[in-house]
Amino acid sequence: MPPAFSSGSSSQLCRIIPTHLYCPACSTWRSRLARSGIALHRAKNRFASTLASATAVNATKSIPPKNRDLHQALNELRKKAPGQVSLSRLQLAIQGLESEHPTARIALLGANVPVTARRLIRLFLADASKPQHDWEARILGEDSLQNQDLIVRFGTPQNEGLQPASSILPVLFVPAPVLQHQGIEILISSVKVRDASTGLNGDTLSDVLLSPIIGTPNSAAGRQSLISQPVHRAAIVANGLDELVSVAELLAKTKFQSGSERRLVDIVLNLEGNVQSLTSGTITVDAAKAEEGLQVVRTDLAKASEFEKVWTESGMPALSRWLASSSAESSVGLSPLLRDLIASLLEAINANIAIQAQEARIVARSKAMTTETRLSLENAINTFSQLGHAELQSGLAAAWSSRNWRKLAFWKLFWRVDDVPLIVTDLVTTAWLPRTERAVYELTGRLKQAGVSMPSDSSTMFSPPQPRAIPMQADVKEKASSPVNESLILASTASTESVSTPLLPPSRTVIKTGSVPYRAQSLASTISTSRQAFIFTAITSLSSSAQQIVLKALTITGVSASLSALSFLSVTNGSIYESATVLALGTAYALRRMQREWEVQCKDLEHGLMEKGRSVLKQTEEHMRRLVNDASQVVEDEAEVRARREAIEAVEKAKLALAKHT
């Protein structure tokens, strides 16, 4: 539409025209480039000081004091719950609080085409006491323009001879007093409903009615951009009973998020011959009868009484009252229209938060382990524990009675002391939980198949052994008198304490053990890791103890032989029998001491292997049960839960601010 120029003298227009050129090719006004530096500088200063936009960084909005709390609450709600609310409708509510005299936007949506809606708006705004205005012909439009969207606002129609101002939406200014007094503007558009050819596909969102998509021309080629145009209130215009049925089906399939939101949408039925209201939420009119009465009174003002009768029979007063009641102004507090809009937004946010919370719980529950799977895994873990302890006892019992272990009898240490590492390694490897180790791999596979996050994926269970001595506790110092005892207790303590160590990814984590880097192990390699740790400590200590025992026995025997020879040579009346007795007693004592110390070391080894096996089985079982329990729990994303909680708090704050305006 042509822009509205401010009134001025002809000399001012003469000064504007020589300084601007009109380009017919691109339909724009262009400033002449031949402008002096001083003039350009003055123009920049003038524009910066007088034409600052409302969205400038340094611009401040003047908000009425009574609306500041609610305005601030809605702004906070926009930040806290952007995904649970229609931002365009929320912005419309915020804009309504920024003015003492807000403008209400009402939408009349025609069924498939807005032709009937245009006719009704023309009848509502027409002045029967005056001839037909040019804007009436524009609002009815030509045949090619009747299906276009249009916004009707109060104002003076612009001069057709002037270039129309650029606008996102096509706007028609109408000098109707009702638009000015009630503070409303009307959006004329259409909504797709079911017909015989296309039908109605699926459900419809409420934003289709309360925030309709408007097509705006953006080029000379006729291409359009689609933007959302929120409204305070809407009515669907149906032409005839067939369209009324389609509109009713559309409303039945529309997903209104609250009762307040549903009450913002009404139905207007254009039905010739019968204007009685069919339902409580339907406004019935007869546009043809109203147009006939308007034409009669404009032809002869003396027929005003006849026009009033026809106007009343057409049902137009009900539509006029509905449009007039949509004012956004109120003498006390917020207007009912603006209050209903904000209330519907708050209810919609609560409904969306509840839906999102339910969907999040469903998703979390779907990721959690089922009861049948959990029971199956728990039974498998119980069986694993029973078989593991049985194998530990039977395996060690068979190992201690094996021929390989009898090779380490105390009296054979003199020639087998160097075989201690090989024999102990073979014994522990073959007798200490070999089948249980394979069962751990099998259970690990079943846990992964059930969707359990395994330690190999996210963490580690055990720490590596410490190769150097660690000070023992006071209650185990006596038991750790021998090197083997100390090593066994050290290995058991190190493995027990390592269970509570934070679990770290094996691909990125390197645990320092002394000066040797060690990469963390997974749950499946728990037994093998513990076995290697035990072999490392047991071989070192047992080999050292065996060598010391043999050395002590040989030393005592050598000392006895020396004493025997010395007694034989130094005693005058001595005999060889007495000297041999000293040697025999010393040798017997050395062998007896050797036997006693070696049996103690062997008993400590047996006890250490048994306790270590029980500890590893217990830790593995507990860790598997903890993994199953964690996978069975319904765990939601903490960030999403916190975001929903903050959104609910923002809604409650906005409700309290809205309650102050009631």
UniProtKB/TrEMBL annotation:
InterPro entries, alphabetized: Mmc1_C
Location of the Mmc1 C-terminal domain: 378-614
Coiled-coil spans in chain: none
Database matches in Pfam families: Mmc1_C (PF23868), Mmc1_N (PF23867)
PANTHER family: EXPRESSED PROTEIN
Name of the protein: Mmc1 C-terminal domain-containing protein
